[in-house]
Amino acid sequence: MRIDVHQHLWGPAFVEALRRRTAPPRLDHWTLHLAGEAPFEVDAADHDVARRTAALAEDGVDLALTSLSAPLGIEFLPAEDGAPLLDAHHADALLLPEPFRAWASAGLAEIDATALARLLDQGFTGLQLPATALLDAAGYDRCGPLLTLLEERGRPLFVHPGPAPVTDGPGWWPALVPYVQQMHAAWFAFRAFGRPRHPGLRVCFALLAGLAPLHGERLAARGGGRGQVDPDAFVETSSYGPRAVDATVRAIGIDTIVCGSDRPYARSPDHFGLGDAAEHAIRTANPHRLLNGED
Q1: Concatenated DSSP letters for 130-166?
Q2: Are strands 63-66 and 26-28 parallel, antiparallel or unpaired?
Q3: Could you say which DSSP state residue 265 is in?
Q4: pLDDT per position in the chain (295 positions), as tens?
């Protein structure tokens, strides 16, 4: 079974909930307004379920995991503002046909592990959190009840870039600078603060963790240890191709790299150029272990 662990697909209830808002994040018809990014014209066809299902068949994907777009900042909204958006997102996700499944999301203004438990009981794969919620010890303390629940249930965590700060840079700036910086910091924060608190938690970092694994030599030079690959800390490949994936394999090995596309914003390459065994590991065996905790 070929698995894509990272896609986004907005359903009608979520779209309407965004359109009812008068402050970011909001939709004006199909123009997305965020606090830290320039207005973005969303292509409605990108969120058409039939079209996206056909794209999975074309890509040879047997299971695709969708998630909330964490850069929207919904998780950080006051509970009374964020709850309607989260409820709409989850309701839409539960209506998606096979071969889609979904990551749950959680409001962070008021931590509610009981609400997350209900979502997991309804069939959500695990929990996505913004990287900006997990950048230090305080973040792990705050999110601890959610992560403890995942650990107890044997469900994975997916760490995705969060909101970008306000900038006057070009349109590509958020994806290339703050998103990457967030993931880089989140990778090392998990090593320093997350893993000691949650030794049994399986976690996946988007966009190859901002290429943080490539800094292993510098980590060793500065006293952070060397040669220690966490078998339950995965990275996914979204927006990267053969060169970056090859470098990451050289840094941490093949066993914790999984395929993610970030559709509709990007797509996975047809091949990573590492041979058939590596393709099977990245697209099938490794994501299966991430999701199910089985070898």
Answers
A1: EGGGSSSHHHHHHHHHHHHHHHHHT--EEEE--PPPP
A2: unpaired
A3: T
A4: 999 999 999 999 999 999 999 999 999 999 999 987 889 999 999 999 999 999 999 999 999 999 999 999 999 999 999 999 999 999 999 999 999 999 999 999 999 999 999 999 999 999 999 999 999 999 999 999 999 999 999 999 999 999 988 877 888 888 899 999 999 999 999 999 999 999 999 999 999 999 999 998 888 888 777 668 999 999 999 999 999 999 999 999 999 999 999 999 998 988 899 999 999 999 999 999 999 997 6
Give the pTM: 0.96
**DSSP assignments along 93-137, one per residue:** HHTPPTTEEE-B---SSS--HHHHHHHHHTT---EEEEGGGSSSH
One-letter amino acid identity for 5? V
Q: What share of the chain is helix, strand, coil (3-state, %, to 5)?
A: 50, 15, 40
Nearest to 93 by CA among 23, 30, 28, 7: 7
Cβ 90 vs Cβ 17: under 8 Å: no
Is 220:252 a contact under the CB 8 Å cutoff? no
DSSP 188-248: HHIIIIIHHH-TT--EEESGGGGGGGGGHHHHHHTTS-SS---TTEEEE-TT--HHHHHHH
- Which pair of tokens denotes residue 192? 């320093």
Calpha distance 147→42 (Å, rounded): 32
Residues 6 or more apart in contact with residue 275 via CB below 8 angstroms: none
User: Which tokens belong to 21?
Assistant: 């808002």
